[in-house]
C-alpha cells in the first residue's frame, strides 16, 4: 500500500515534469497538455473535475500552470501530491532559466543575440496585441467593463499607482456594480 | 536580508498576479523595475527569452531575477515566494469549491478584475513595442525592421492557425535578418 503511494507520487512528479518541460510559453498553453496527460492518458481525474480545476486556476491569482498543478495534485494525492506536482511543473523552467541567467552576461553583448531578441520582442508585442483583442471580446461584455479596462489601462500606463490598488479597485467596482447593483435592482422590482 | 525581501516581493506578486502569463508580466515589471532590481531593457530581454523556453513566464522571471540579485538561493527563494500564495489559496478553494463557484459576490469581484487584467496585458504589449521599435523621444522615428516584424506577427496570428511559439521563433529569425 505504502509502496503504491510512493509510485503514484513519483508518477505525478514525472508527468508534471514532462508538462513543464514540453510546454513553451507557459500558462494557458499548458492546459490542453495537462488535460491530455492527466485525464486522457492517466485517467487520474474526470473531465468535469479538470474543467473545475482550470476555471479555479484562472480565477485565482498566481501562475495558472502552478495553480492547476497544485489543484490536480491535491485532488489526486493530498498535500504531498500538490507539492510533488508543483515541483515537477516548475523544475524544467527553473533549470533552463538558471542556465540562461548564468550564461546571459557572456552573450548579451553579442550583436546577433541582440538582433534575435529585438525580433522576438517585436513579434511578442504583435502576439500580445492580438491576445488583447481576443480576450477583450470575451471579457468586455458591457459598458461598465469597457470603462474599467480603459481606466485601468490609463492608470497603469500614465500614473504611478500601485498594481495592488488597481486590482483592488477593479474588484470593488465589480462588486458594487454587479452585486450590490443587482440586489438594489432586485429590491425595486 | 535581501533574500527575505526577495521572497516577500514575490509572495506579493503571487498574491496579486491575476489574469495569468502576460498580465502577470506587467505586475512583475512594475514591482521589480520600481525597486531598481532590474533595468527595463534587461527585463524585456528575459521576458522575450521566456517566450521560447519551457515553463510559465512568472516562474522564469522569478528564477532569473532571483539569480541576478542573490545567486542560486535568490532564484530558489523567489520561485518559492511566487508559488506560496497559490498553494494556500488552491487548497483552501479545493475544500470550499462549491461555495467558491457559487458565490455571486466572488463572481462580481472577478467581473471587475477581468477587464483590469486585459488592461495589464495591453500594457505588456506596449512595453514590448517600446523596447523594440517605438522611441518615445522621437515618436515619428519608427524603427522599421522591428515594426515590420510586429505587423507581420499580427497578420500571421489573425489570419493563420500557426502556433504562437512558431510565430515567436519566426520573429526571432526575422530579427536576425531585419534588425
From TrEMBL, chain A:
GO cellular component, one term: plasma membrane
Compartments where located: Cell membrane
Molecular function terms, GO-annotated: chromate transmembrane transporter activity
Major localization class: membrane
Key words, A-Z: Cell membrane, Membrane, Transmembrane, Transmembrane helix
TM ranges: 12-34, 79-104, 116-136, 143-176
Pfam family for this entry, one: Chromate_transp
UniProt key word Repeat: no
Topology in the lipid bilayer: Multi-pass membrane protein
Family statement: Belongs to the chromate ion transporter (CHR) (TC 2.A.51) family.
Protein name: Chromate transporter
From TrEMBL, chain B:
Molecular function (Gene Ontology), one example: chromate transmembrane transporter activity
Source superkingdom: Bacteria
Membrane topology annotation: Multi-pass membrane protein
Keywords for the protein's UniProt record, in alphabetical order: Cell membrane, Membrane, Transmembrane, Transmembrane helix
Transmembrane segments: 6-25, 73-98, 118-136, 148-178
Pfam families: Chromate_transp
Localization: Cell membrane
An annotated GO cellular component: plasma membrane
Family (UniProt): Belongs to the chromate ion transporter (CHR) (TC 2.A.51) family.
Protein name listed in UniProt: Chromate transporter
Organism whose genome encodes this protein: Thermoclostridium caenicola
